[in-house]
Amino acid sequence: MEVMETSSDGLKKEFKIVVPAADIETKITDRLSEIAQSARLPGFRPGKVPVKLLRKTYGKAVLGEVIERTVNETTEAAMTERGLRPATQPKIELGEFEDGSDLEYTVAFERFPEIELADLTKIKLERLKAPADEKQVDEMLTRIAEQFKDSKAVEEKRKSKNGDIVVIDFVGTVDGEEFAGGKAEGYGLELGSGTFIPGFEDQVVGASVGDHIDVKVTFPDEYTETLAGKDAVFSVDVKELRETVPSEINDDLAKKVGAENLDDLRKRAREQQEQEYANVSRMRLKRDLLDILDKEHSFELPEEMVEREFEAIWNQFEHQREHHPDQIDEDDKGKSDDELKEQYREIASRRVRLGLLLAEIGRINKIEVTSDELNRALVAEAQKYQGQEKEVLEFYKNNPEAVQHLQSPILEEKVVDFILEMADVSDREVSLDELMKSPEDEKAPAKKAKGGKSSGKASGAKTSKKSDGDKAKKKGA
After folding, report:
1. Topology of domain 263-474, CATH
2. Tens digits of per-residue pLDDT, 158-167?
3. Is CATH 3.10.50.40 the classification given to domain 150-245?
4. How many CA atoms lie within 13 A of 265 on its CB side?
5. What is the pLDDT, as a whole number, of residue 138?
């Protein structure tokens, strides 16, 4: 094999590789010999077909297979010999090839940049911690009680309203004929819940016990084939009126949600709240770490990677601008596309730089995603699609690139954990408001004083333009 460097421009490299015809011929012969061991052709016993006949029968297919394998192997060997690591998928261009001639091709790619890592032990970070808020624990229990609400009979004579439960008998007809599934007795319908055909509940609002109502509705077009788009009349008798009331916050409620008693339920609610606060704290800590890493490292970036990342961000921004314009940042609504593109290219560059940096730290320190970790992620992903778990797992089995999308965030979090273990991290207890405060509020109090609303949320919310591209993610990137 002969390797000649034909171009070198920054991270961009191009080589011409020549593989002697004799090497190609040897590979073809070896492959045909493998096939001969099990080949079956009329007039020959298994494994006794002459190689020359096999070449005539399978020659073109074997040649294509050999060329593909040779290109992959020689390209990898050429890079390994020169200590090059491609950051992008190499682009292969084959020259004209005839059977019996040398194999010539060019390979172009962008190499992984040289990264001089900063001393991770000198990184100083502050981790914010907020104690559990008993008031919010009480509010969480109240919400649970509302979700598991009870009902009681309305004793006074009054008309029904949204939120009430009307116990009804009904019979539905289309063109005077009853239809399957259109009849029930003693059915408890919560008005305003939207569980019945559009327009049904609205016509029952205002009814009293003992009333008979003819409810006229039209089935939606996406309903069952036999009823879609058809007009129907439901003969409804109101038998009872009940009003909903939240469940009492007691041991019985706790048992409804799987807790042993109220104390156990309160403990679980507190632990859930503490976990949510810990997640916000982790996100803020990670954002601060990435800001420091971005500031402390500067190296050349592969242009193709930056362009690919920018296109993904921009395409998603355009989708959001078209379909969800109300979610676009106010600061960006007056900017031109050129200004926005410049802004998003900076975000794309930052993402690529941090991605390469974290990958390098992981490589040097031999941080990898274990098979157990990946399997757990696959199972968790499959469980999101109940009833289709086998199809989801099969999809990932046949799509290595999709598996990579699951693996990458796991590796990133492991590398971040590794850095945090080395860094100087101090803890500071803060109020819940301070934990949830957005970076803009922290850095620009004057702007907030003018009436700007805080955008802090339990998710860590809005970050500055310099923070890991989160602003772009808000726009759909």
Report:
1. Trigger factor, domain 2 (1.10.3120)
2. 999 998 999 9
3. yes
4. 22
5. 92
